[in-house]
From TrEMBL, chains A, B:
GO terms for molecular function: glutathione transferase activity. The keyword Aminoacyl-tRNA synthetase does not apply. Residues 4-83 form the GST N-terminal domain. It comes from Fraxinus pennsylvanica. This is glutathione transferase. Belongs to the GST superfamily. It catalyses: RX + glutathione = an S-substituted glutathione + a halide anion + H(+). Residues 89-220 form the GST C-terminal domain. Coiled coil: none annotated.
Length: 221, 221
C-alpha cells in the first residue's frame, strides 16, 4: 500500500532476518533497514519485542511483528495482491508450514553444535544431525526446482537464509554438503540466482570470520 | 464437506492432541478417534508422520496433517465457512500466531521440568518458569474474556490443552496457579464451560496418576 512505513530491525548474519528481507524483496516493498548491535540492543528493539527481545522485528506503520516465519506469513497475507509466497490450497499450505516448522525445530540447534562446539565430538554430532536434516529436506524437495514446486516460496525462504552459514558448517566440521546432498545444493544455487535472495544474504566467509572471532571470545578455541 | 473422512491419531493426555479435538468440535465435524500406544506406535502413525513419528496426526481423506498448531490452522482454513478460529485481519492473525508460538516454545519444556524433575531444584526452576510464562500470558489476555477478544479462538485452543496438566504441575511443585494468576484461571474456567473444550480434555487427576506411575518406571521417585 502506498504510504506504508516499514522498518526492519535485524542483524545481518541472522538466517531468520534474511527470511524477512527476502519476503520484502519478493513483494517489491521498500523498507528501512536498521542494524542492531545484539550486545547493546536498541530501546526500540526492546520496546517492539519485549517478550523475546530478539531480531528480526518488522515494524509496519508503528506496529511490530515478531518471529521470522510469522513475519513472512504476515507479509504474504497483507500484500496478497502480488507474488504469493504460500500456496493458496489449505493442504499445500499446511505442508509448507510443516517444512518451515521442521527447519526451525531442527536445523538451527544442530548447526549450533557445529559452530559453537565445545569439542570435536560435539562438532561431529552436529555434522551428523545437519546431514540427516538435509537428507530429509532433499527428499521433500524431490525433483522439483523449489520446495513449493515451480515457484520459489515460503519453505525456500525459510531454508535459504541458512546458506550464509553453510560455509562455516562445512569448514568447522570438515565436510561438503554438495558431496552428500547434490540436489539440495543445486536448489541452493538456483535460489541464489534470484536477485531477491542474493541481495538479502551476507557473505558466508564473513559469517565464518565472525564465528571464529566469537569462538575466541567465548574461549572455545 | 459432506463425505469427508477424518481420522485423528492421538494419545489422550496430549495437550497438543487436545487442540485438534477442540478445533474439530468447534467446527462441528465428526471424526474417528484412534488412541495410540506411544510405547508401540501403530504402522499407520509411522506411515502418516514418518518425519516426527508423533501424535497428533489428522488424516483427512487419506492425507496426513501433522503438528498441532498447523492442524488447527488447516481445519480453520479448509472449513472456513463456520466458526472462525483465527482472526481475519493479517495483523491480528500475526499476533495470534505469535502467542501460540510463544506457548509452544516455552510452556511445554518448563512444564516438563516440573513433571519429570530429577530433584527439588529442577522442580522449583520449572515452577518459576511456568509462573513467569503464565504472568506474560495473563498480561497478553488483559481484561478480555478470551485471547482473541470476545470470541474463543486459536490462542485459547493452543493453551487450554495444558489445563489437563495444571493439577500435576501444582501438586508436584506445590503451588497454586490461581493464587498467582487469578485472571488466567478465570479464563481457564471460562474455557472449560464450553462443551467443545470439556469433551476434548481428559481428567487432570488421571493425568497426575499417569505422571506418578511413569516417574516410578523412570526411576525418578
Amino acid at each position: 500500500m502506498a504510504g506504508d512505513e516499514l522498518i526492519l530491525l535485524n542483524y545481518w548474519i541472522s538466517m531468520f532476518g534474511a527470511r524477512v528481507r527476502i519476503a520484502l524483496e519478493e513483494k517489491g516493498l521498500n523498507y528501512e533497514y536498521r542494524e542492531e548491535n545484539l550486545q547493546n540492543k536498541s530501546p526500540l528493539l526492546l520496546q517492539m519485542n519485549p517478550v523475546h527481545k530478539k531480531i528480526p522485528v518488522l515494524i509496519h506503520n508503528g506496529k511490530p511483528i515478531c518471529e521470522s516465519n510469522i513475519i513472512v506469513q504476515y507479509i504474504d497475507e497483507f500484500w496478497n495482491d502480488k507474488t504469493p509466497l504460500l500456496p493458496s490450497d489449505p493442504y499445500e499450505k499446511a505442508q509448507a508450514r510443516f517444512w518451515a516448522d521442521y527447519i526451525d525445530k531442527k536445523l538451527y540447534d544442530s548447526g549450533r553444535k557445529i559452530t559453537w562446539n565445545k569439542n570435536k565430538e560435539e562438532a561431529e554430532e552436529g555434522k551428523k544431525e545437519v546431514l540427516e536434516i538435509f537428507k530429509v529436506l532433499e527428499g521433500a524437495l524431490g525433483d522439483k526446482p523449489y520446495f513449493g514446486g515451480e515457484n520459489f516460496g515460503y519453505v525456500d525462504i525459510s531454508l535459504i537464509g541458512f546458506h550464509m552459514w553453510f560455509y562455516a558448517y562445512e569448514t568447522i566440521a570438515n565436510f561438503s554438503i554438495e558431496a552428500e546432498c547434490p540436489k539440495l545444493m543445486a536448489w541452493d544455487k538456483r535460489c541464489l540466482e534470484r536477485k531477491t535472495v542474493a541481495k538479502s544474504l551476507g557473505d558466508p566467509k564473513a559469517v565464518y570470520d565472525i564465528v571464529l572471532k566469537s569462538r575466541k571470545i567465548k574461549g572455545l578455541d
